[in-house]
Every structure is written in C-alpha cells, then in structure tokens.
What does this fold into?
Amino acid sequence: MSLQHNYLFRVLLTLDQTLNVILFNGGEDHTISGRVGHKAKTTGLWYWCVLEKLINTLFWFDPDHCRRSIENGAIFQTTTQQDIRHFLRLIVVALLVYLWW
It folds into this structure.
C-alpha cells in the first residue's frame, strides 16, 4: 500500500471512529461497523439488524463486513434508551446529509 493510500485509510478510519463516538457514544477505538455488528449479534434488536444490513450492502465487496469488524475482547455497554437516541440521531444526520446533497 502506498503512503498516499495508507494516509487516506488512516484518515477514513479516524473519521469512522470519531463518528462512532459522536453518534453512538461508542468507544473511541471502535468503528461504526464493529459496534453495529456487535449490537446486531448480541441484542438482535431490529434497528441494529437494519443498520447491519445497510452497512453490509454498502460494503458489498466484503460479505459480513460488520461482524468481521467486531474487535475481539471489546467491552460494549448494553443496549439502553441512550442507544436508541443515538440511533435516531444517526437517522436524522443521514437524512440531513441526503437532503443537503
């Protein structure tokens, strides 16, 4: 991987981790895909499963992307009302971005 691609990858990874903290109150070292994959796997709640399917569709070249992004040994908080608020916040942000484009 060239230095330019390595730099771009690190910038995108950092953005992904930052959005995980802002939107989901997730860990600063975890990606959105990993968090969604973990929540879909452990809770089975419909909204985590919908997000997992959506993200896996976006990463069509990487089947089961979310589940493979779960970091081993990661400690996640249990699903709470706060998780639901963060999910709704993500939907609002996605809609705003969509309307803005």
About this structure: The helical segments are 3-24, 32-43, 46-58, 65-68, 81-100. The chain has one domain: 3-100. The two ends are 32 Å apart (CA to CA). The chain has a mean pLDDT of 81.
